[in-house]
Amino acid sequence: MPSIVWLAVLFPLFGVGSSFMAERPRRAGQVCLASSVIALGISLVLLWYRVVHPTPTVVETLITFWTTRPADAVAGAAALPLDFHPQIGFRVDALSTIFLAVMSFVSVVIQWFALVTDKADAVYRRFAWVAALLTCAVLGLVASANLFTFVVMSGFATLSVYLLLGLWGWEMSAAKSAMRSWRALVAADAFLIGLLVLSFVAFGARLSTQPLASGQDVNDPFSFSLLDTQWNSVGTNSANSGGVPLALLAICVIAIVWMKSAQFPLGSWTVRVEQVPASVLALVLTLGLSGGILLFARMYGLLLVVPHVLPVLVCVGAFTAVVSAAAAFASKQLISVVVYASLSQLGLIVATLALGGYSAALFMLVGFLLVTAVGTVAAVHLARSYGTGQLDEMREGWMRMRVTTIGLWVWAVALCGVTLAPYNAFATAFRNQLPNGGHMASLIAVIAVVAAAIACALTVVAALKVTLTVSRGELQRRRGLQPERIHDAGFMGRVMLVILIGGVLFVPLLGIPGIPHWTFSHFVFFGSIRQQLPLNGPALLLSSVVLVLGIGGAWWLFGGGRHARMEKVLSHENRIVSVVARGVGSEQIAPVFARYVGTAAVMVGRLLHSVEEGVIQPACDALGTGVHDSGSLLDAMQSRYRRFEKLILVVTLSVVVVVIFVVKGR
Amino acid sequence: MPTNGVSGVQDQAAAAVATGVDFPVILLTCVVFGTAVIALIALFLPDRTEEQRGRIRLMGLWGSGLALLLTLAAVNIQINEIQGGARAAYEEQRALISAFSIVMQYHLTADGITLPLLLLSTGTFVSVAFASWKYSERVKSRCVLLLLLETGVTGVLCASDYMLFLLFWGLQTVVLAVFVGMWAGGYRRRLMTRSLARGVTAFSLMTAGIVLMVVQAGQHTSDLVTVNAQHLPTAAHAACFWLLLGAFLVALPIPPLWRDNVDVAAESPAPIMALGMGIITMLSGYGLLRVVLGAFPDMVHTYSPIIGGLGVLCMGWVLLAMRAEHDIRRVVAYSSAVAIGPVLLALAVPTSNALVGAVLIMVSFGLTAALLSLLSGILEDRIKAKQIAKFGGLGYQMPRLTAFWLVAILSVAGLPLLAGFSAEVMTLTGTYAQHRVMTALVVAGIALNGIYLLTLTRRIFFGEMREEYARVKDITTLELTYALPLLIGILLFGILPGRVIPLIVTGVSQLVGSTT
Distance between CA A194 and CA A197 in Å, rounded? Predict the structure, then answer.
């Protein structure tokens, strides 16, 4: 039964291939969608199988990609293993089965929504197959049994995000965002290859001498399961200087999480993609940004062993959450608010995971996937219908686009805490206990609590600002406005949105704390200890306070008849927040950094160019001229004695033949 | 005692498998000299009418195609034999000139290192023969020179005698320079003399090093394996090492001499650029592995940081110089030189993994450089411009060409399941144990190269659709004919490295065995 995980991952790829044979773009989309639906079905079967067989063992299904036996070692360096055989394969465990189901569900709904709303787009066929490719890559990431498979799938995920954004190339901002996304994600992939190399060098030799894993000819040095057994022994064994490789591995993981999960300031590319369709943005923000957190979860054992890594990640996550929430609060663009709020949620998830809340953070990730999908689809659909992204120009949403506005409200309510994200973050920080029994420094936990509180409050205010502004008021006439175009998507589009909304409202039922056996933390946990989170009173109180403060603040600022107050407050707050969010914020740092580094590189390149042009090439030319002149001289000499050349040739050949015969005769 | 055919070189099992035939197998001779024979025939064919010129073109194509088919057969047989447990290499050996004190042998071999490179070169020559189809001037001389160049290249790869090696090396150097002189645009005379000067310098250094080595070995033979196995006097040993290392680095060429190749690439027709970027550079890499590492493993070990550092330096130089370029062909030419970094690093740390990776990198970068060169030629042909700023939004008019381009670029960037990925992973896993910082720098360099090339892709194919290019045609059937084999090569080496790597390992294990 677990072998069908291959089908779940590869069916979308089958859709990619088949889409090229479809006669129409719409049919291509249907083919890709059908393949994703089958993948969803198989994922649900796997989930059911795992739920009814709750064994702690992990089932892996692998094929060998290539094999070499490098029976050599470098003198004076670390011993290399006797086998190098990267394997591609997948594992069936609680984490993989639940995320296979959730991610394929999100992908199917978004693709379906695209099929009914974006079918007139000129590049719809390309969107369809790239979306299916992204689905395949992300499902592969989720289920990968080893680092090698993770690297392979991550490469395809990077390519899919680049193509998804770049295909809308007539909008230059989308093409530029594609490049920015590519830079960040390729850098992450380079670190992933570094991680691969490091783990091979650090653990290959050790694993190759250990008893074989069941069903394997040799021990795979990239296997997550086998690596999990190694972290502790290497980390505590000072004789083999295991600390340095582990530290390097941990640095690689931090970098990958930072880049792949768009942590501050490397998430700037996500904000500049307003022009792409709703389905593209939703796919990029949900499936495209979850890779880093999944790797974090898979390499969790390593990060627990290496000191100072988790506090760094807590700070990174907390800072991202606060800055992104501030930027969402300050933004007047509907889509920017949604994107920034999503980045803030990602920061919160990273911080929670680093604080030891393994189950809590992964539960937050499930909620994030669905909530972000709803928010993005609703926001981009609204922006496209109104023909503007400016919040000030959007009114009467409730009257004109009721289902879409409901979607936006559900998104806002979810951010207010319905999906239990703030509660889980606070509960983890208050509990302050790592799965290995350790504790984070109190200062770090306090920082996390304060940051989470600020981020949640600001996000709630921003989300309610958006929904209140869009759904009420009176639509102002402006040039280019076409009120007849402002309406909900067609029937199937509305159905898809409702299904997503249903998913969002279903999520909290999985994570209600204090209920044994049926909660998420009972199913997905790290190691052999279930993180049975009891009801945490202070966390519940704090999340309620934040919620009330956020709602109260939003109503006070943006409620009916309070426009003057809102303007006054915003005029002060925007100034402060803009400094944080824009002056030194994520939108500015990366481009400026890239510009100056790029300019410096071009200047050095020009310098080298000048050296080549001014020094090297003249020298080569002089040499070439010398050769040429020598040739001319020989040519002149030859032409002078041309009449004798045949004679000279015959004599020379004769002499050579005679010499050969004489020497051979001896 | 002369030996023929597929002979066991490692163990009895190989011999048992390989000696099933008792007539002389001249497969390598056919691969190397088949093209020369056809060139000779083509030389005497008339080329006055279009029909006659078409016949000559066809002859050229048949010559290259025959070499490719024979190489494919050889590779396939070898892979199957290796899977059966044998470790064999093709070998043909006869005394050629035994009149002097040093016996020169006609000794050709093709082991696991040679065969993939042979496949790359013969495949690229077929693509180039197709790509040259549309040129109607000097058809005969171009076909003849192309076939002679192929003889030189395949000869260098198969030669297992130092004198034979020099002979073929000289042949390809001269033919390439003549090629450049005849068909490069602009200041072609200057380019030719520069190319010839560099080639002659490398050849002179190589000749000096090899003659010194053969004489000092004192075995009265110039056989490569025999000479490599001898211990030379210390001073001669060091002199030979530096002479040969210098020769191959000049021939490679390392930056700043790489600028020569860039100039030639920018001024030549696309097929010549494809040959220069895809094949000729790879030959020097092969020379470094076969000659420098094969003969002087101790010196390589001693100067490992210098060689590896040189590789990293070259890579950095190329990446920076690439940033200053605005010409599509020059950027592609610079990006091909990035392979120098991992190859030199692998040479510096000659573990099995690193050397297998180096061979794969030469193959993958050869394929992608040839493909990108031909595609940039197509683009230039359509747009009538080489400046990157003049391109933009071509992805809508040319979706197929965009797909070909993207696959090539992604292979360079190391996307899994394309040729570059397995090559880079193998090299880096092999080199990391000894040179950690350099390996990290090479990884960064590969990533930067990928980013630069993707930026180039964005500027050419994405962005706003331009009115003036609304009627630009996508890739034609003829162009597909020569681009598709290279693309298939990239995909095959990426998806099925497991088929090729055992073959390369057999060759590399001999080299590593000799070095340890």
Answer: 5
- Tell me the one-letter amino acid at B474: D
Beta strands of A87-174 (E only): which ranges? 87-92
Q: Does A583 touch chain B (CB under 8 A)?
A: no
Q: Which of A183, A616, A624 sits opposite B259 (nearest CB)?
A: A616
CB < 8 Å to B511, chain A = none
Residue burial A161-198, b: 16+ Cβ < 10 Å; e: rest: bbbbbbbbbbbbebbbbbbbbbbbbbbbbbbbbbbbbb
**What tens digit of pLDDT does each residue of B25-52 get?**
788 889 999 999 999 888 888 888 888 8
In A490-530, where does DSSP find H-type helix? Answer: 491-510, 520-523
Query: d(Cα A303, Cα A312) in Å, to the nearest integer?
Result: 11
Q: Which of B94, B101, B102, B103 is nearest to B1 (CA)?
A: B94
**SS3 label, residue B392:** coil
DSSP state of B92: E
Does A75 reach chain B within 8 Å, measured CB to CB? Answer: yes
A499 touches chain B (CB under 8 A): no
Distance from CA of B30 to the nearest CA of A (A): 28
Helical (H) or strand (E) element with B512: helix B497-515
Residues forming beta bridges with residue A354, ordered by sequence position: none
- Residue B90's Cβ-side half-sphere holds a number of Cα atoms within 13 Å equal to 29
pLDDT the model gives residue A268: 67
In this structure, are residues A455 and A322 in contact, taking their beta carbons and an 8 Å threshold?
yes
The one-letter code for the residue type at B376 is: S
Which of B190, B319, B502 is facing A621, going by the closest CB pair?
B190
Residue B375 binned pLDDT confidence (cut-offs 50, 70, 90): very high
- Whole-angstrom distance, CA of residue B92 vs CA of residue B24: 9
Chain A with chain B: Cβ pairs closer than 8 A: 191
Tell whether omega for the bond before B253 is within 30 degrees of 0, i.e. cis: yes
Q: Can you tell me whether residue A242 is helix, strand or coil?
A: coil
**Single-letter residue type at A326:** A
End-to-end CA distance of chain B: 29
Q: What is the DSSP letter of B223?
A: B
Residues of B in contact with A259 (CB under 8 A): none
pLDDT value, residue A114:
83
User: What are φ and ψ of residue B90, in 5° steps?
Assistant: -70, 140
Of A169, A612, A620, the CB nearest to B198: A620
3-state secondary structure labels for all residues of B100-156: CCCEEEEEEEECCCHHHHHHHHHHHHHHHHHHHHHCCCCHHHHHHHHHHHHHHHHHH
| Paired residues of B95 in beta bridges | B105
Secondary element (H or E) of residue B7: strand B6-8
Structure tokens of B444?
Answer: 């960064």
* pLDDT tens string B273-332: 888 888 888 899 999 999 999 889 888 888 999 999 999 999 888 888 887 788 888 888
* Cα of B442 vs its chain's centroid, Å: 21
Taking alpha carbons only, the member of B415, B421, B402, B491 closest to residue B451 is B415
Residues A141, A159: Cα–Cα separation, whole Å: 14
- A372's CB contacts (< 8 A; 6+ apart) are A282, A285, A286, A338, A342, A345
pLDDT for A373-429, tens place per residue? 888 888 888 887 877 777 777 777 777 788 888 888 888 888 888 778 888 888 888
User: Which of B257, B356, B415 is facing A159, going by the closest CB pair?
Assistant: B415
pLDDT bin (cut points 50, 70, 90) of residue B345 is very high
d(CA A659, CA A178): 72
β-partners of residue B97 are B104
Q: For strands B88-97 and A87-92, give the pairing.
A: unpaired
Instruction: Give the mean pLDDT of chain A.
Output: 77
